[in-house]
Amino acid sequence: MASSPNGAASFTVLVADDNEVAQRLCKRVLEKAGYGVLIAADGLQAVDIALAQKPAMILMDVAMPGIDGLEAMRRIKAEVPAMPIVIASAHSMASDRERFLAAGADNVLSKPFRLADLISIVEQLAQARST
Amino acid sequence: MGQGSAFGTRILVRRATPFAAIAAIFAVQALADAQPVLAFPLYLTVVLLVSMQQDTVESLAVATAAAVAVLLAPLAAGAGPADVATAILLGAVLFGVALGLGALSRRSRATASEAHRRLEELAEAEQKLRTTLDSAGVGLALADLDGRFLQVNPALAAILGRDRDGLTGTSLVDVTAEVDRPAMVDAMRMIRHGDVARWEGQVMQLRPDGAEVPAALFIAMLPGAAGEKMLLVQASDATANRRADALRECAAAVRQVIASSPGLEPAMPELLAAFRENLGWHEAHYWSSRTEALTAGDELAARAWQAGVLAAEVGAGRSAVGVPVIDTGDVVGVIELSSRTSKRLSDDEVSMLSRAGVEIGQFIRRTETAQALRRSEADHRAIFERSPIGIARIGGDGELLEANPSLLLMLEHDVDTMRSSAWPDMMRAYDQAASRAGKPTFLAGITDGSCVQVRAATGAGRWLWLQLTATSIPDSTGRPEHVLLMIEDVTAVRETSDKLAEALEAQRAAIANLEKLDTTKSEFLSIVSHEFRTALTGIQGFSELIRDGGLEPDELRAYGGYIFNDADRVNRLIGDMLDLDRMESGRMTMRATDVDINDILMEAIARASTSTVTVEFKSDLDARLPIVSGDRDRLIQVVSNLVNNAVKYSPEGGMVTLTSRVEGKYALISVTDTGIGIPAEEIGHVFERFRRVRSGAAQSIPGTGLGLTIVKQIVEMHGGKIWVESAVGHGSSFHFTIPLAPEGAAALQLRHG
């Protein structure tokens, strides 16, 4: 937000997660790192916000009420194919990771995660975008 | 000549004698000067004698002489007319006597000469007969009624080997060989009694040297001259006949043996005996191989084998013949006959033996074929009799012709029951099974090896599965004559296969169950790990933030709260899972005590009210609800779970109502909310683990997903039931029952007393 130290506020991350604790954690960590954060509490909301506000990337949970994260991703990618979407799921078996990448995810973040991993994934995408 | 003149002299003397006698009488009369009357008897005597003996002329001459003599004397003496008349009268008497007697004697003489002539003729006839008898080739004899020979012709004597004189007085029975003697005695008796007029037969005659000769005898009763009866015996040497008979008999015996014997082996001794006994050979041997004969040094047999025709050797002390046994042109054996005497073979015997050889050859061929056939039939019979498979022969009209022991044993029927009822039933079953299988019925079209399985009851009432295999057997014209039916008891196989199929089905179900269980377990694991990781995400993330420091005190407090809540959630999750596991595995024990359900309901309302302000609580409790027997803590768990759910899924301003009442032998408790309700497609699954309703407004409602599963387990452990009624947008009603304690009524009274 405004407190962003490196003026990267223009790089906004949409955090789509039905778990409030996870929402707060991500929001706290990413804002601290200087990114803008949008929150969606379910899949439909995520699609709406993603298409309306065009965040720089999306951090997407899978197990959400309504449409799940993968369906939301499919719908968003259908509209904005270049939108980077990172799946952040507690479904963290090896097969799950493959499944998510095959579904079109740009990256996968297994829950629970180290804060540094979250920041590093977002940073990579931010840098890729800035170059 | 001399004899002739003597004969003439004798006649002269005889003729002169009467005249001399008359002259003498006349002389004596004249000398004595006697009256002629006195001399008359003398004259008369002479005339009488002559008339009786001499012919008429002679006797008349003598009578005339006598009459002259009688007349002469009176005339010479010049006697008176009376004397002359007397003399004339006397003379006339003499003459008359001579005349009468002459006629008389003439007649008697004629009769006598006739008789004489007859006698002579008879003698001549007898002579002729005797000559005929003597020269006849056939033996002839006359015998008395006891069979003693009166006359025997040379031929008969020759046949009997005795001289004619020796035979006279010998009896027919005496000259008969021992063997035929009874028959002879019998024959004599029959003829004597007039039972038969004549008797014919062939008997062995016994010669003095002990040899026996076959003779054909003909005996007939003859009327004798003096009224007594005699026997005419005609005999002929039947040796030649005998020989022919022997050949015939031998051939007949051979045929008899061939016709009655099952094979060469038993037949051969009898055949050899037939040759020996009928044809008078001393030894008979059968060579069944040429090599054998050669090895034995029997060249005759080998020669007969080689030539294919009869071979004979006749020596002084030994005769032998080799008769080839011929089967369709090939010599298959040689019968060798030998004799210790010189024995000539007649043409008849040769041809008879040759024929016999051919017949025996044909017989060998027949018996070999028949034996092969018999063996084959015996094999089939043995199969039929001893086969463990049931076999039946069915006639063209479907009637049971024959059933083997295995079949009767298998079906526990005797053959009559089998024929009258069991088989017709089985045939119907066959037809039904065949038509189901699209095969022709038993009689409509018997096809080879057509096979069906049918159910059939045994005589003892057991039910069997039978496999019927029908094969039609054609007659000589190729039309199906009967059907061979093989019947196997496949009950065990069927039952085993049925059991196997059942077992297989059960196994398949078990596998499916296991797979389902496995899938459920994987899903469960996946869900559980997801739940844990979700909870840990907050715990790990916020604890990392705290660890890294630099946080405001209120931030710290908030993050500590998140960590605590998630840790608590993880703890509850673990507790629920362990509870469920214990309940499902039956390891959870209930501590049953008297429980007042109404108390629990009131406490639950009180507890929920303190933590929830958005929902209103209402209770409708039956004050007369009896005490139940149960685990108080677990029942509290059930009620609070249901109340918490009701609160969670109720919107702000919603109402949660708790009711209790008696329903038969149960306490019925209901927790009703005015919440979002459960969709129809979800309502059947609400009690399944992790089946949280996530759709629509329920999405954000937290829970372990195990609560209702645990609730259901607890209710069922108490012997109760739980169910749910719901309408989306109107709310849900969870109902459960807990059985009343048996002493519930008393306890109720106690409580209210």
Describe the structure.
The complex is a heterodimer of chains A (131) and B (753). Chain A has 131 residues and is an alpha/beta fold. Chain A contains five helices and five strands, in the order E-H-E-H-E-H-E-H-E-H. Chain A has helices at 20-32, 43-53, 69-79, 94-102, 115-130; strands spanning 12-16, 36-40, 57-60, 85-89, 107-110. With 753 residues, chain B is an alpha+beta fold. Chain B folds into five domains: 15-108, no CATH class; 136-237, PAS domain (Beta-Lactamase); 265-374, Beta-Lactamase, CATH 3.30.450.40; 387-489, Beta-Lactamase (2-Layer Sandwich), CATH 3.30.450; 589-752, Histidine kinase-like ATPase, C-terminal domain (Heat Shock Protein 90). Chain B has 21 helices and 21 strands. The chains are: A alpha/beta (131), B alpha+beta (753). Chains A and B meet through helix 1 of A and helix 15 and helix 16 of B.
Topology:
The complex is a heterodimer of chains A (131) and B (753).
Chain A: E1 12-16, H1 20-32, E2 36-40, H2 43-53, E3 57-60, H3 69-79, E4 85-89, H4 94-102, E5 107-110, H5 115-130
Parallel strand pairs in A: 1-2, 1-3, 3-4, 4-5
Helix pairs in contact in A: 2-3
Chain B: H1 2-32, H2 36-53, H3 56-77, H4 81-135, E1 139-143, E2 149-152, H5 154-160, H6 164-167, H7 181-192, E3 198-206, E4 212-223, E5 229-237, H8 239-260, H9 264-279, E6 283-287, H10 290-295, H11 299-307, E7 311-314, E8 319-327, E9 330-339, H12 347-386, E10 390-395, E11 400-403, H13 405-411, H14 415-436, E12 450-457, E13 463-474, E14 480-489, H15 491-548, H16 553-584, E15 592-595, H17 597-611, E16 616-621, E17 628-631, H18 632-648, E18 655-663, E19 666-672, H19 680-683, H20 707-717, E20 722-727, E21 731-739, H21 744-752
Parallel strand pairs in B: 16-18
Antiparallel strand pairs in B: 1-2, 1-5, 3-4, 4-5, 6-9, 7-8, 8-9, 10-11, 10-14, 12-13, 13-14, 15-17, 18-19, 19-21, 20-21
Helix pairs in contact in B: 1-2, 1-3, 2-3, 2-4, 3-4, 8-9, 8-12, 15-16, 16-20, 17-18, 18-20
